Amino acid sequence: MTELPLIARARSHLNSVAFRTATTALTYQNLLDRSATLAAALLGEALDLQETRVALLVSPGFEYAAAQWAIWRAGGIKLPMCLSATEPEWEYALTDSGVSILMVDAPMAEKISPLCQKLGVRLVNLDSFTTALVKPLPEVSPERGAMILYTSGTTSKPKGVLTTHANIQSQIESLVRAWEWTPADRIPMFLPLHHIHGIINLVSCALWSGATIEPFSRFDAPTILDRVRADAYTLFMAVPTIYVKLIQALEAASPADRAAIVAGFAKMRLMVSGSAALPARVHEQWTALTGQKLLERYGMTEIGMAISNPYRGERRPGAVGIPLPGVEVQLKTETGVIVTGDDEPGEIQVRGPGVFRTYWNRPAASLESFDDGWFCTGDMAVRERGYYRIMGRLSVDIIKSGGYKLSALEIEAVLLEHPNIHECAVIGLPDDTWGEVVTAVVVLKESFPLELSALRDWCKGRVSAYKIPQRLRVVKELPRNAMGKVTKPVVRALF
Asked: Is it the case that residue 105 has pLDDT exceeding 70?
């Protein structure tokens, strides 16, 4: 029987450890066996799930990976769900995608059971299947649907992004090649597994390569740093916020502890930052502390990863690098002209085998998202000396002021260097003269005073005159949306 390549490759690493915890070491053979049992449980009397949507609400770790493989081996489409989401958010995802089955572990079963009963969704508790089940499993074409991931959605309901097995394989192979994954790699896993960063970049690349994953239910700095001190990892993937917390922990540590932990970080072959822009200041602080140059990359739910700083070569702070293997990238101006040189901004458009198939049940939105076969990301970037630098979202992060297109992200990065500013969000507000004026909303450190005139004086010499904020608002805490994110539409509500 022809198997999906991700499953077939696991047979080359049967005795290697796939998941390691403080008390257990589970091999690729264990993963194959467990996923086969769960696939048989999903199928029941059926021969093939035929792209039935199966939701997954399981804590990170071996059982999560086994359940994911089970869905795919049984012919289903996986819908990963956020463990900390609200019931209305769960209900929206389940109903919009037409989920028939929900796989859970014991901690989540009680929480979600009433909703499953209400919606008529079959609940499969992984803990109910402790003995092996044997059943012939279907052949699954690479062109079949594999996963629906929901975008965060800031101004409308989230959209389900449908990717095929072929899309996912292309995304994995591109990263494995670019970042030189090997069976000798060991990586901690504390990223959420309802986003592409954790699912593809970390778990899928590791399991494709025969590497070892050490799972954690959440990011726990003391525990992670103890493992770093013990040289437990060769790779490390995190979001910028986590690197900021690690910097704070290292700076607070005793000289001896700091030296031991830094030695562990220094031995890693690769450290990656993603899911949000990495401020150049944090990049430089991390290098100064550990000697490691973080690798920043660019991607999104619809395309996987598209651009990356090189594994071997210059990793440029503030830039996301060059197109990954197998990915085509172009910039297109608002007037429809393809950018051919450096220093001219345009929207990032992506083409390649990793690009998603469609938005679930949204044919109009799917059609509007493509331009002659190129996916329109909605992100504006500029190419500088061959490397791409993200300027922000066309809709909310690009401020059009006095004929200039200004990157709110770039201005935010400068403001975060101010000694009294803890957090900030930069937006453009309507103005009769300029079209939009640069406006800064800031959270101060320890309630230090900050006047607009003083801030503007401080900005002189750091940014061009037209990027200096014209308005300032000081708040105790930046407002966030229902997902806990600071978003520009929510910030605008302050004015």
From this structure: yes
